[in-house]
Here is the input.
Amino acid sequence: MKITGVELRRVAMPLVAPFRTSFGTETERDVLLVRVVTPEGEGWGECVAMSDPLYSSEYVDGAAEVLRRFLVPALAALPGAGAHAAERALAPFKGHRMAKAALLTAVLDAELRATGTSFADFLGAARDRVPCGVSVGIMDSVPRLLDAVAGYVDEGYVRVKLKIEPGWDVEPVRAVRERFGDDLLLQVDANAAYTLADAPHLARLDEFGLLLVEQPLPEDDLVQHAALARRLRTPVCLDESIESARDAAAAISLGACSIINVKPGRVGGYLEARRIHDLCRANGVAVWCGGMLETGLGRAANLALAALPGFTLPGDTSGSRRYYATDVTEPFVLDDGHLAVPTGPGLGVDPLPDVLAEVTTSTRWLPV
Ligand SMILES: O=C(O)CCC(=O)N[C@@H](C(=O)O)c1ccccc1
Here is the structure.
């Protein structure tokens, strides 16, 4: 399967409501989509990089540039690009895992569509539907938070994740626990907003029976996360700290976490995401599938990953309407707290041409 060219497409996706985290507030996603074209057809990938380098060092303009100048040209030398060969071709370039993930996902999608294989079958899915959690941003007030959580619980989400930061943590968590009871699966995500000095304060979250506390400390603090984990009853989960299976191995061996949030975009694609899954499963570490506000294209691939056997905790695989009034694919709609795993070839979904045309802000064709 020789790649004949790659299209970089930017789409503007307004969010249904502002989404506030400890590092900023999103109101619209400027998404970079990658389309790989071959004589047999095409494949799609979605870059999860945000507009600004606030979640990680990557940002969408930078991802587009590194794809244009380095990553796409590296595929030209390949006799025929399968995903594994393409991953090896991109390995010499340091970092830029979100840009790599978008291109490798598009190559994998093209390869799987050509062979009639779904992402789920290729990755080794064990389920045909996955339980869905929802991520709730930092709100202006506790009453507003409780209203938002009530709406998601009514929609059927099986797990609630609350964004926290210093000054917005114990009180909102207490309020949610008191309002919705002990049976609600509840976890928090700090996005690296605390330091080890906050350990006594973070230990106050132990009384709420949380599933986990996600990324409490900065992403390069594995040793300090291990020190914190020894002082909390609540399990520590890592997100930003884990950019590869090697990072996962180091975090596990240091005791820096007991759960990992796997985001294919953060770790360089679905092949590496599966390696992390396999490593964690072999070490008794639970994983769940995180989200980066993906459109239906990225969401479809994430659902296939979330169906693997080691994904034992509900992920941030919410329905399309959690973020977008109109998705670029047919919307993913929650059914009894679950989403069905796509079964068609490749991603199993396609962009809706009219919607894609409507939200596209630019396209760039890169011959290979
Ligand atoms: O459901 C989703 O897709 C978003 C889940 C979520 O909270 N993502 C967070 C995160 O830190 O994991 C995030 C939001 C915006 C940007 C980056 C990351």
